[in-house]
Amino acid sequence: MANTSLWPIRLAVIFVCLQSAFGQWQPQQSGSDAQLRGVSAVSSRVAWASGTKGTVLRTVDGGKHWAQVNVSGAEKLDFRDIEAFDEQTAFVLSIGPGEQSRIYKTTDGGVNWQLEFTNHEPKAFYDCFAFWDRTHGIALSDSVDGQFLLLSTSDGKSWSPLHPTQLPAALKDEGAFAASGSCLTTFGKNDVWFATGGPAARVFHSSDRGQTWTVAETPILSGQPSQGIFSIAFWSRNDGVIVGGDYKEPTRAEKNAAYTTDGGKTWTLATKLPGGYRSGVARRKDWSPPILVAVGINGMDFSVDGGRNWSPITSSQGELNSVSFSPNSDGWLVGPAGRIILDTKPPKM
Fold this sequence. Notes:
By secondary structure, this protein is mostly beta strands. It has one domain (4-343): YVTN repeat-like/Quinoprotein amine dehydrogenase (Methylamine Dehydrogenase, Chain H, 7 Propeller). The chain contains one helix and 28 strands. The strands form seven sheets. It has a four-stranded antiparallel beta sheet with strand order 1-28-27-26, with no helix packed on it. The two termini are 22 Å apart. The model is unreliable at 1-13 (pLDDT under 50).
């Protein structure tokens, strides 16, 4: 049996080492002044980012150079989410009412883009999407007439409405947040979760690719349109974390992070909370215990105990919206005015 009395010492050592490691931030030149909210780290060399003014950016050399691979004819769209699989293949989702919500795909590094979906429901507003693999994905819209709308693809080429046999009704004015492209997440071959805000902060879960759903209440701040869960991440079928708060009060460090150990059936508020509203959270994929990083417009925090306790990352990198880590744990953070920060893999301890 492990000596649990040594755990506080180990946490202290991890904290000191991580503060040092997380201090090695590398601001990069994106060549863009767009508000960036979508980011997808593929490897230590390949990453994609997206944002306002139809902006899509790609690097294939670790961020030494970022190239604009914008979508022709989409200059007025706001690409809040991007999901990439390699240096050639990526999907982007634009937000907005009606036909502003679209999904495009490239298979040649952004030279050409195929329009795979255009929303024709005037009341719909698509917020984010996620994938189980290259050909199977799911997208989420805010609720319309008391029901959340979902899309799915089974070939990576076309999207169609998903009609669950069981999906709990949305509350009045309940919706998702398109702040970081991470209000929806998948794990394994079949599980998917999405998070909401407004009148309540809830997490919906499906274990069969969206055919049937359950919903759970969470302790995250809610009650106002600006409050709720903004980002969700899972690293097993059971273990996950949510972050959020109130984007109108970014320094308000109240009920802004919670964790689950039972697949999202129940959620527990973090003991030590992040330092304010957090719009994005992601996990370093090759660390044990898991290292979680949460970002927001007033700072960053990390957790080494599954989201139970959060500590500030003291290096200031300006306002940030979203974060993504590649399988080898190199990561990128994005924010306003084309801000891109590289967070390289820290040394093992």
